[in-house]
Design brief:
Helix content is 41%, strand content 16%. It has 14 helices and 13 strands. The two termini are 14 Å apart.
Length: 379
Amino acid sequence: MAESKRIILVANSTWNIYNFRLNIIRKLISEGHELLVIAPVDEYLEYKEGFPDVKHVPMKTMGRDSTNPFRDILLLIELYRKYNWLKPDLVIHYTNKPNIYGGLATKLLKIPSVAVVTGLGYSFIHKGFLNFIVRSLYKISGPSHNKFIFENEDDKALFVTEKIVKKENAYSVKGCGVDTSYYLPNPNGQNGKQVTFTFIGRLLYDKGIIEFIEAAKTIKQKFPSVKFEVIGEFDADNPSNIDRDHLVNWMENGIIEYKGFVRDIRPLIKYSDCVVLPSYREGMPRTLLEGMSMGKAIITTDVPGCRETIIDNKNGFLVPVKDSQALADAFEAFIRFTPDQRVAMGVAGREMAEEIFDDKLIAEEIVRILNPLLDVNNS
């Protein structure tokens, strides 16, 4: 077994750790390393029950969507002090603010650091002052990191082109992966002849919720019995958050069935035929991977992150971004499929989940990238 190293994982929420990082925690522990997590405390601290040896260090100054520069300076100071106190051999940063300010802190302390870009979010999708600031901060902090890991090839190419990271220090993996032993296949056709499309994601304009609704309206005129379900929560701190009155209106008019926020989405995916995410940009959308793992067809947009989950017309359909008519056309094509054709799409998706997106494979790939920083023989 490799020599034990002290490794810190830093994220903007414990929710992020619970939902997306358990595979890498599990893998690093199995390699004999000591793991610490720095993140704001929330109800997802329950992840510790499965990892009693992981030390969780609360972060107090993280404002995930705050644009207050004084608060960000306090975040930099807090991370500097924590790293100086904990003396890690390596820090792995997740999400934008830890990547930027955590990177600067590790540079000051001469600690090896990795930035994991999990998606570029609102600040990169929308042009403007915030976009300029985030890009500028990344250019300042980028050289602080020994390596960057991206969840899709497009984000990697963007950062290399922008000269935020050198090509030889940039790596791409297929997202955070999906636990294929947890999200087990449930064949399409659970609802008999009725076809169900399911949108899973935060209720943000940038997730394509409006395009989903507009396409659903079009389909309902031709196929009244088709169901459109929405699963997800409001994100009040995000500028792209939709108005609650819109949601109520869609429900009252019978366009969608809103299921709210659900921690275990497997029972709802089970009774779906197709998982849909018409997002404007993603890192690597976990909800689509979960749908694929459960043997469901998927429909998504031809944008960074999303496009890597699709072999068009094999495990689902790829449609242009912000095009509700193209989305409706994809819905109709799927509705007109035979039951066997729908099942075949789901089977193809399950195979891709097992062969490409399994979270154990992703964790192994990330550790291979990290090993040179830990003086580990990677042969």
